[in-house]
Specification:
Length: 317
């Protein structure tokens, strides 16, 4: 049983790979060796249980003999010995119950024939799994024979899911699988393209990456040319940082403070190409280049405009 979220393709693939990995000859041989060590440890513990059971039985028998040997007229001693006998019987019953519970939890002990069949299965299972006659339903049945249940832990913004596996032998482990992209997204942006964008974004801007792709003759799956917007969207989907272009000039606020005007005036100058400014991309701040000659010209313009007032916004200068 798989408990979790829809779209189980990537999860089933991760579980299938783990099952095949666990069933490799080397893994099974190692598992048998670990089982031998566990069985030896259990045998040593079993000897301790048997010694405890033997001692408790002896003490209960001894308490019974002492009670049987007391003179009937010596009632006080008889009651004391009877109480001690009952105490030893209760102790014996407790040890017998705990020993029975311990025996019920003992590991399975494979015979030589079982070991041979297990190792042979390691060679047979991959062939059966990949056979053309084996359908998905058969593979799921094989998984259910080995795994009791799978619990899926998924978070909305996390690209990975955690899979909690509980094997039939009651051992548990956790796997991590990638969430598959939605169909439309997966069709538009392949892993190869995303990896290439990640590599180029270290030194190139989005428009430069789009130019490189188009010069190489690359096209989107729909056959279209790449654009700055499509590269930017691809970076957003795959959490790829943009190339950082070091600032060379001033911000709008810095220019406004430098020339004692409002930010509205600076934007007005930019819109009319009175200032040399550019943006690295939408949403990025303006990078304004202001040389001495241009600064002097703008200062003169402010003085001549008649709106040079620190307390008011100059709408047009």
């Amino acid at each position: 049983e798989i408990i979790g979220v829809p779209n189980q393709f990537s999860k089933m693939r991760a579980i299938s790979e783990r099952v095949l990995q666990a069933m490799q000859p080397a893994q099974l041989e190692l598992a048998l060796q670990v089982m031998d060590k566990l069985v030896n440890k259990e045998d040593h513990a079993d000897k301790g249980w048997k010694l405890l059971l033997e001692r408790t039985t002896y003490e209960a028998d001894r308490a019974e003999r002492q009670y049987q040997q007391v003179e009937p007229e010596n009632r006080l001693v008889a009651r004391s010995l009877e109480a001690k006998w009952n105490e030893k019987l209760l102790e014996l019953e407790r040890v017998q119950t705990e020993y029975a519970q311990y025996r019920a939890r003992l590991s399975w002990r494979p015979s030589d024939e079982d070991r041979a069949e297990i190792l042979e299965l390691a060679n047979t299972l991959p062939r059966i799994w990949s056979a053309a006659t084996t359908v998905s339903k058969d593979r799921k049945r094989i998984i259910r024979l080995l795994i009791g249940d799978v619990t899926v832990f998924a978070e909305a913004r996390n690209p990975e899911v955690r899979l909690g596996l509980r094997w039939r032998n009651h051992c548990s482990e956790e796997l991590v699988a990638k969430k598959p992209l939605p169909k439309g997204m997966e069709r538009k942006h392949t892993t190869e393209t995303a990896d290439l964008v990640r590599e180029l974004a270290v030194t190139l801007t989005d428009d430069q990456i789009a130019m490189v792709f188009n010069e190489q003759g690359r096209r989107t799956p729909e056959g279209r040319a790449f654009t700055t917007a499509s590269i930017r969207w691809l970076r957003y989907l795959h959490k790829i940082p943009a190339y950082f272009v070091p600032r060379r000039g001033l911000t709008v606020k810095e220019v406004a403070e430098k020339l004692a005007v409002s930010a509205h005036v600076v934007y007005y100058w930019i819109e009319r190409s009175m200032l040399k400014a550019h943006k690295q991309g939408p949403g990025h701040p303006w990078d304004i280049l202001l040389d001495d000659e241009q600064e002097a010209a703008l200062r003169q313009r402010v003085l001549e405009s008649g709106h040079h007032n620190h307390g008011k916004k100059q709408e047009h200068v």
